[in-house]
Design goal:
It contains seven helices and two strands; from the N terminus they run βαβαααααα. It is mainly alpha-helical. Helix 1 links the parallel strand 1 and strand 2.
């Protein structure tokens, strides 16, 4: 198992994906500085003002620092109603389009799969990303 810890640069993600496609077991981990920075940036997607964002970040970062990914995902899920629907919304704003929550969730999952370099593994090899399988 090769574990790559990086700032998440595209060339590193591409390289990790190439290694996976060559048969290597690769885990790509975002370093703490950049993970924390990304969490702060993405907290702008939540309604509720500074107090809500501060509480979310405190709980989320504590879980992530402890390596509790499932807990962190649960925390994010509990804030779902506070989230602005930004990530997928751009693709769903066409004239006359109507999207239900299940379809939006599916589209978001596929987009996340693509962004995280797991598209080929999922569709061609029937595997999910290591984090999703945990």
């Amino acid at each position: 198992m090769l574990r790559i810890v990086s700032d998440g640069a595209q060339w590193i993600r591409d390289w990790a994906q190439q290694l996976r496609q060559s048969g290597f077991r690769v885990e790509h981990v975002l370093d703490w500085y950049h993970l924390k920075k990304k969490c702060y940036e993405l907290s702008s997607l939540f309604y509720g003002g500074v107090a809500v964002k501060r509480q979310l970040l405190r709980r989320l970062l504590r879980a992530l620092w402890g390596g509790e990914v499932d807990t962190a995902l649960g925390i994010l899920s509990s804030y779902r109603t506070e989230a602005r629907h930004v990530l997928v919304a751009r693709r769903q704003k066409g004239r006359g389009m109507r999207w239900g929550e299940a379809v939006s969730d599916g589209l978001a999952a596929l987009q996340t799969l693509l962004w995280n370099g797991g598209w080929d593994m999922y569709w061609q090899e029937g595997r999910t990303l290591p984090l999703a399988a945990a």
